[in-house]
């Protein structure tokens, strides 16, 4: 086959070489009947391509053909790399392709729902353009999501989903190294796994069922089943009624469950090491992605030297340093969480902290008294205590009887945690909306595309 070059790899050192690339014609800018500039995009990178009428190489017909291309048509470009004094199109690659051959592989329709150029601009660019009286189109979030297939083509989106992929792979690599086994639990289950009303109900061969709100019960049963340490990456369903920047109805759950040998801090240790490994790995391997995201959505990198605080210390800090009163043994609402995050960031210079010793009554039913962290906990392995808790939490114990029974057959002390992959990416990339981190988001108002 022919030799293909990635647009992102085009660089000065290739000056004079002939290359062949495939990409989308993001912009087509004729400057006369003899010259046309194309901006060709492949994933996160764009390159300026120029066709100039020259005897025996580029005919006027070829320039006309290039000029008549529609935006986003897929093209193959063969040409020679040169280094222009100045790029006129603002492409990411600092070199230019002097086109020799141009093929249109698939033509896009002339009126696209979104222009990728418009959809790739940062707020700063819009403001600058406005000041200079230029008319630019802002692409709103609903328009983007309604046309997600094409919206995904923006370099920032390309970068976000690469970060997500690299991050989840590091999650796997780290846990496998620590002797965890990857498991796959059912997503159609008989009863709710987290309690509460936020479940999608369905009918399963005439019986009531629901979509799993987490792999919680089954990952614990896997521990009872003798696996020692397990993890899962899989879809999680929440029939959330909250239409917010950080809630989805379907997201990717990162779940971990493990035997505890001596102390529940073993779980905290894994949480800290795991997330530090993921963040380090992203910083070391996704610098291009992070730069691309930063160009459209500027952000400050997170500081992730782990810090542990008890719930009481957190409540004290909120009271003394922000004047926020938390009712005795009460949960921290989003606002209080955010305030505490700011206080911890200022005082300990980190955005990564774990709150230990969370009061039991604000945690789900399977949580062991006293040993508690947000989305992380030691579990109850005593079946009678578990039954009592489930009842107190208003759970129909019949629907989870096999779960409770599994603790009668010899169950080691264990604990675990769960995080939403989209939340992790949103936080790490400083994005303002979780929908940006979901390929095809599902929220209370969106079931398509
Ligand atoms: O806090 P949650 O509900 O905890 C559990 O599911 C437990 N079974 C975990 C455990 O092992 N103790 O959800 C876990 C994480 C949250 O911390 C958050 O990152 C994410 O899942 N999450 C959501 N992400 C997006 N949209 C939603 N609606 C989310 N709800 C929770």
Automatic annotation (TrEMBL):
Q: What is its main location?
A: cytoplasm
Recorded GO CC terms: aminoacyl-tRNA synthetase multienzyme complex; cytosol
Give start and end of each Aminoacyl-transfer RNA synthetases class-II family profile domain: 171-449
Location of this chain's protein in the cell: Cytoplasm
Q: Name one GO molecular function term.
A: hexosyltransferase activity
- Give the GO biological process terms: aspartyl-tRNA aminoacylation
This enzyme's EC code(s): 6.1.1.12
Q: Which domain of life, per UniProt? A: Eukaryota
Enzyme class, first EC level, given as a word: ligase
Keywords associated with the record: Aminoacyl-tRNA synthetase, ATP-binding, Cytoplasm, Ligase, Nucleotide-binding, Protein biosynthesis
Q: Which reaction does it catalyse?
A: tRNA(Asp) + L-aspartate + ATP = L-aspartyl-tRNA(Asp) + AMP + diphosphate
Similarity comment: family membership: Belongs to the class-II aminoacyl-tRNA synthetase family. Type 2 subfamily.
Would you tell me the protein name for this molecule? aspartate--tRNA ligase
Which organism is this entry from? Answer: Rhynchospora tenuis
Q: Which residues of the full protein are shown?
A: 396 to 844 of 844
């Amino acid at each position: 086959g022919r030799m293909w070059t990635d647009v992102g790899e085009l660089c000065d050192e290739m000056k004079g070489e002939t290359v062949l690339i495939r990409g989308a014609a993001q912009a087509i800018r004729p400057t006369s009947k003899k010259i046309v500039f194309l901006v060709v995009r492949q994933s996160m990178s764009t390159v300026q391509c120029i066709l100039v009428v020259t005897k025996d190489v580029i005919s006027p017909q070829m320039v006309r053909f290039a000029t008549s291309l529609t935006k986003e048509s897929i093209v193959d470009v063969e040409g020679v790399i040169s280094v222009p004094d100045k790029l006129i199109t603002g492409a990411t690659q600092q070199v230019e392709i002097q086109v020799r051959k141009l093929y249109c592989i698939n033509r896009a329709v002339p009126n696209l729902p979104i222009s990728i150029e418009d959809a790739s601009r940062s707020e700063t660019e819009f403001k600058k353009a406005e000041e200079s009286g230029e008319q630019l189109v802002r692409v709103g979030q609903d328009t983007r999501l309604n046309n997600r297939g094409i919206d995904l083509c923006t370099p920032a989106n390309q970068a976000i989903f690469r970060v997500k992929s690299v991050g989840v792979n590091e999650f796997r690599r780290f846990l496998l190294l620590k002797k965890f086994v990857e498991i796959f639990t059912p997503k159609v289950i008989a009863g709710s796994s987290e309690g509460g009303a936020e479940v999608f109900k369905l009918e399963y061969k005439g019986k009531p069922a629901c979509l799993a709100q987490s792999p919680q019960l089954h990952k614990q049963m896997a521990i009872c089943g003798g696996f020692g340490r397990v993890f899962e990456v899989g879809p999680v369903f929440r029939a959330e009624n909250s239409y917010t920047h950080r809630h989805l109805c379907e997201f990717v759950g990162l779940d971990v469950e493990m035997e505890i040998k001596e102390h529940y801090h073993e779980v905290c240790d894994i949480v800290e090491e795991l997330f530090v490994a993921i963040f380090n790995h992203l910083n070391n391997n996704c610098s291009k992605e992070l730069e691309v995201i930063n160009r459209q959505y500027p952000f400050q990198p997170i500081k992730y030297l782990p810090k542990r605080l008890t719930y009481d210390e957190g409540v004290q800090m909120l009271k003394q340093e922000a004047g926020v009163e938390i009712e005795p043994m009460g949960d921290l609402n989003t606002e209080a969480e955010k305030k505490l995050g700011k206080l911890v960031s200022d005082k300990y210079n980190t955005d990564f902290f774990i709150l230990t010793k969370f009061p039991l009554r604000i945690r789900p039913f399977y949580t062991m008294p006293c040993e508690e962290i947000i989305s992380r906990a030691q579990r109850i392995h005593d079946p009678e205590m578990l039954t009592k808790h489930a009842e107190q939490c208003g759970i129909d114990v019949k629907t989870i009887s096999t779960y409770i029974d599994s603790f009668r057959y010899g169950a080691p002390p264990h604990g675990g945690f769960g995080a939403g992959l989209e939340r992790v990416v949103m936080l790490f990339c400083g994005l303002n909306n979780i929908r940006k981190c979901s390929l095809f988001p599902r929220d209370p108002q969106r079931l398509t595309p």
